[in-house]
Amino acid sequence: MRKVAILAAAFSALTLPVFGMGSGGGGYGMGGMSNSDPGFEAYSQAVRLIKREQFGEAIPYLDVALQAHPRSANILNYEGYAHRMIGNYNASLDYYNRALAIDPDHKGVHEYLGELYLQTQQLDKAQAELATLTKLCPNGCEEKDTLTASIAKYQASNPAPAQPVATPVPSVPVVVPPASDSAG
């Protein structure tokens, strides 16, 4: 009997992934899907592949899941994440924006969007995403902590260029010649 319970728990862990992706992925659950829901198996397979860092392979499964649930901010977030991880930044940005249009307070999307901005050298936009997370997480949250650490790492690796020191220009007296009175 104990062996059956262990196997059931193991199977449950495989089919209902708990994926803490705050530091690289998202942990946003199944979005209310059950295993009889269209898209469930595709979503589960995509999450398994993402956990194994097989991002490109996960995308077709996410596409299937998104067809079944086109308004799922969680699936759109994973789509953005997978595309970002393979370097497809334009598609990533599109998926993140679509997710935020559905759920403007989705902390995972704000974290990942900040990460995308760091990868595309847009520190100011990453800091704006951190400001949003600060508002969404007044008592702190994993997404805010992760983006804070990513920004600090980015800044350490990309120090701001030194501002040139303005050297004063010596003033040169301007000599104006006297007006000549040559009427003649």
Structure overview:
The radius of gyration is 27 Å and the shape is elongated. Among the domains are: 34-87, no CATH class; 105-148, no CATH class. α5 (89-102) runs antiparallel to α6. Residues 1-27 have low confidence and may be disordered. The chain has 184 residues and is an all-alpha fold. Helices cover 60% and strands 0% of the residues.
What order do the helices and strands come in, and which of them pair?
Elements: H1 2-15, H2 40-51, H3 55-68, H4 73-85, H5 89-102, H6 107-119, H7 123-136, H8 142-157
The averaged pLDDT comes out at: 82
Radius of gyration: 27 Å
Distance N terminus to C terminus?
125 Å
Return the string of H and E elements.
Answer: HHHHHHHH
How many distinct helices? 8
Number of strands: 0
Assembly type of the shown chains? single chain
The major β-sheet equals: none
Low-pLDDT windows of residues: 1-27
